[in-house]
Amino acid sequence: DAGVIQSPRHEVTEMGQEVTLRCKPISGHNSLFWYRQTMMRGLELLIYFNNNVPIDDSGMPEDRFSAKMPNASFSTLKIQPSEPRDSAVYFCASSHEGLPGTFGSGTRLTVV
Amino acid sequence: QKEVEQNSGPLSVPEGAIASLNCTYSDRGSQSFFWYRQYSGKSPELIMFIYSNGDKEDGRFTAQLNKASQYVSLLIRDSQPSDSATYLCAVNYGGYQKVTFGIGTKLQVIP
After folding, report:
1. What is the mean pLDDT of residues B56-62?
2. Chain A residue closest to B91 (CA)?
3. A25–B contact, CB cutoff 8 A
4. What's the pLDDT at B96?
5. What is the full DSSP assignment across A27-63?
6. Preferred mutation among A45, A90, A97 to probe B, highest tally of B CBs within 10 A
7. A2 falls in which pLDDT band (50, 70, 90)?
């Protein structure tokens, strides 16, 4: 099992650019979570999907953030336009019923 | 606003000692409680979960839950330098999938 796969591992972009983060969950898992981690705010749940359907996006900071899950094996988190305050590590996690999930390695985003 | 409070540390303990990590939460309706370990630059890894009042033991780790006091703790016996990491307390709200994390406590085990 390859675990949860995220790409890219690192992303440096200029303010105002569009950023797309990608996630492949563990096969057979039916729940997918996007988290953001910063030193000041810790680990925050942005959105989660159950059976490819967005269930709760109340953690998405603003309209610049959007997430999709077109099928059971792929999800994206898009930021458009990006701002320096979006700099953080973004984690994707997946699970099968119950536990909060197995985390991917994360994408370290730097917006300059 | 659902709160999960942890002392950010660092908590320093000598090798072989017991490390005690603490967490309080605000919502009395919470049902599930989790401890994650996160090494520097790595992703969080689930190490313990507990649902019922009392203690749950797994090897050198013991999770303790007191719902009346809204308090959950993690004890690490015979601490090793490899236990040095940040320990995140997580509590579910509004269904098992919606989880709030504490800021984490950094543990340093001194050889």
Report:
1. 96
2. A100
3. no
4. 56
5. TT--EEEEEEEETTTEEEEEEEEETTEEEE-TT--ST
6. A45
7. confident
